[in-house]
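COMPLEX REQUEST
Ligand: uracil
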Amino acid sequence: MTRAPPSTSSRPPKGRGPAGRLASTARSASWQRLSEEIQACRRCPLGAVRIQAVVYRGSLRPKVVFVGEAPGAEEDRLGLPFVGRSGARLDAAIRELGFGDGSVGILNVLKCRPPANRFDRAAARTCRPFLDRQLAFLEPQVIVTLGAHALEALDPGAPRVMSAAGRPREGRRPPIFPLIHPAAAMRSRRWAERWTHDLAAFRRWWAERGTRTL
Ligand code: URA
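STATUS: Structure written out below.
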């Protein structure tokens, strides 16, 4: 895969020297504090019905962050995003794209499972600062939204997901690459084909993007 350009972010030094190690320890501690804050949150009614809040899965220095909608039953039980059937589909796609574990992160707009898996917009507004803080911390080079609610949350001006999916939204920093939700890809052959098609578009765009400057 084409190498992406180095980030020009304000990340702490990654070197192995004492300063790099200290910065890296402080960074992990700050992520840990944010994760604990999310796990303890009771700001909306979902806090009372969840088993646990679902924070994040993946690298703390990801190139790509995949943003889903909300935890389902398996995620609520295990405390990790995308560990059920749609997670298996997503993980397979990530492997096919050639990303290793160190390159990606996975999270959701909502941190708690909504009853009957019905996306809760009011809860999403309350939960929003957590999403923003996670993304500001992780500083991915691209955000891949999965499904309509993630796209609407992160790019409210975007067309509906079926028009937007498979095409980068490069006016954003970082750019957003919308995809349909992996659960949708399991619903019919037509949607599975759309998923495969849009992933191929993402792979091409990512490879080309490696030669440009963000
Ligand atoms: N669907 C999502 O959007 N997120 C998950 O974590 C699982 C299923």
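REMARKS: The longest strand covers residues 64-68. The longest helix spans residues 18-40.
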